[in-house]
Design brief:
10 helices, about 60% helix, single chain, mainly alpha
Amino acid sequence: PVPPWLFFIGALMSSAYLLTTSTGSIAADYPMAFGVAWFVLMASDFTLLSHPHHELQVGPPEEDAIENAPLSARVQWVLRLFSSPRGVGWSHAPKLFRPTPAPGTSRASFVLGRVASMFRCMLTVDVSSLYLRHYSTLVHGGLSFDERPWYWTMVDLYVWALSVVSNAVLLHSILSLVSVALHLSRPEDWTHLFGYWSDAYTIRRFWGRAWHQCLRRVFTVHGKFVARLGMKWTESNCLVFFLLQAAGITIEDIVIAIGQKFGLKSGRTVYLLGYAWTVIWFYKTLPVWWDPKHRAQNMFNRTFSLQSGMKDSGAFFKE
């Protein structure tokens, strides 16, 4: 058999080539680079750091003897594994997903629901991008977050987050719609991309319950590997942001433990304080990551707009 590391070398070389290319736009290059990095991490996980055939399974164990299955079944197994970064339906799936569509849900009703979700997201993304392109905090060469009144910074960050979430849900809706319509999967295979926002009253719960879990496995596997080696990371704005999240979770865990020791119990007041803490935390830490990026180049230069009759949204706000 071919050693797994040879597949990783191939994935690494092709990804390195892609990273030498550029569209000339940060708005387009950033998600492409993110996708390439995610692909390399998945390849590293499945070829170097784990043994998927032994450690991962979909369905009952007796129905998942993939090592002895025909080649076509193994290819389908691998494709299903790569196409489910959250591990929906797999043994490594997080236990905190929102409920999936009930078994027996008709394909027609599922598709119609996702079409409605698509249009809601398209409208939200469109309106939010018009706002973001208009305000100087989030355009090329504009003010930094620190130079803007705090209440407008809060609005800017909220609208930006709404745009990010809506874009992600839009893509997820399209993929699920196509997959179910072509009978490549069932409605119950597609759970909601994000959890309940009502659960996001601490930083830990925000990342562990409300936010999508697409990167959970690759970050966990590689984090454990790096911890074992005792490696040190080089500094970057993105890395500093995520390291700050770990620091914030540690701080709130200590505070919660102290509160519980003194008899503090969950309740409406505690939840409200938790939401306030989480909002303030992201208000202070998100600019660490996004401020340099927005000032380098406009990240919201959209050329498609429902609001302007499918025309360039720049007709409303010129660059």
